[in-house]
Amino acid sequence: MGFFSKFFSKEKKETLDQGLSASKQSILSKIARAIASKKKVDDDFLDDLEEILITSDVGVDTTLAIIERLNARVKKDGYVDSDELTRLLSEETQALLADSDDSVSSPDFTLPQGCRKPYVIMVVGVNGAGKTTTIGKLAAQYRNAGYKVMLGAADTFRAAAIEQLGEWANRADVPIVKQKLGADPASVAFDTLKSAQAKGDIDVVIIDTAGRLHNKKALMDELTKIRNVMSRVVPDTPDEVLLVLDGSTGQNAFEQAKQFAAATKVTGLVITKLDGTAKGGVVIGISHAMSIPVRYIGLGEKIEDLQVFRKEEFVRALFEPEA
């Protein structure tokens, strides 16, 4: 039995219900209290539900869209009880997110069918969001799926980031390209792709980037430079730009998403630290508001707790009581 087989069989991964328990309990208990004194879903209840969703970090625009859809459904179907209400809430939220789910994320960490190799992923996000840890977990998951992975430590502004990524590379048994502290990040990205080409058998390249939240112009200039330099090696790279956001920060994550989306083309979101927080609604709000699909969610510390996001499972786990 290899390193990964032993690692992944050590403990059962967090289930969605376990990982989202704080958010689930908070939302469902509030809904139950709001409907307890009501005999029907009326305007007063919908006003209460609107407040519940907003205070659960779903976001104003997304909440209003959910309420509008739910109101139309209730008027069409007539009276619904509390169990029926949570089911409708789940269904209408899923429908709202359908347009932002472009099916690029694939089950079990498999690369898109027919993609070129190396498949290049650039990861962005502020310090403290779990960016470097996410890269390490991604590398391990892809490695466990049978791919050959290489990491590029292009966050050269923090010695801790380089060291931490190096530790993850060792744990995952994947090569890493790094330079000294303060080196040009674009140079590291360039060297990483050149090294991957030289090896000839690398399937996935994951590039870390600086986690500083600059002003929009400085951030855009830096990320654009990295992309342009990588494109000289492999045209039209990166194939994927993942933005890592700390789900426990709630509305602050919205602002970070806006700034990074303005600085570079973000193709997918990774929402981390959802275990132990009541702010799980932020996943729905950011994906809907930004029209960017969520690729992965983080529900714990273990490697396998970085899970592929499936909107139907997530929304049901958040809104529907356990059977």
Output mean pLDDT. Answer: 83
- CATH topology of one domain, by name, is Rossmann fold
Order of helix and strand elements from N to C terminus:
HHHHHHEHEHEHEHEHEHEEH
Q: Regarding CATH, which class of one domain? A: Alpha Beta
CATH superfamily grouping of one domain: P-loop containing nucleotide triphosphate hydrolases
- Adjacency order of strands in the biggest sheet: 3-2-4-1-5-6-7-8
CATH architecture designation of one domain: 3-Layer(aba) Sandwich
First-last Cα distance: 36 Å
Number of helices: 13
Structural class: alpha/beta
What fraction of residues sit in β-strands?
5-15%
The total count of strands amounts to 8
Task: Characterise this structure.
The protein has 323 residues and is of the alpha/beta class. 51% of the residues lie in helices and 12% in strands. The protein contains 13 helices and eight strands. Strands 3-2-4-1-5-6-7-8 form an eight-stranded mixed β-sheet, sandwiched between helices. The protein starts with a helix and ends with a helix. The N terminus is likely disordered.
Concise structural overview:
The chain has 323 residues and is α/β, with parallel strands linked by helices. The protein has 13 helices and eight strands. It has a domain of 160 residues: P-loop containing nucleotide triphosphate hydrolases (Rossmann fold, 3-Layer(aba) Sandwich), CATH 3.40.50.
Question: Any descriptors?
Answer:
about 325 residues, alpha/beta, Rossmann fold, 8-stranded mixed beta sheet, 13 helices, 8 strands, elongated, disordered N terminus
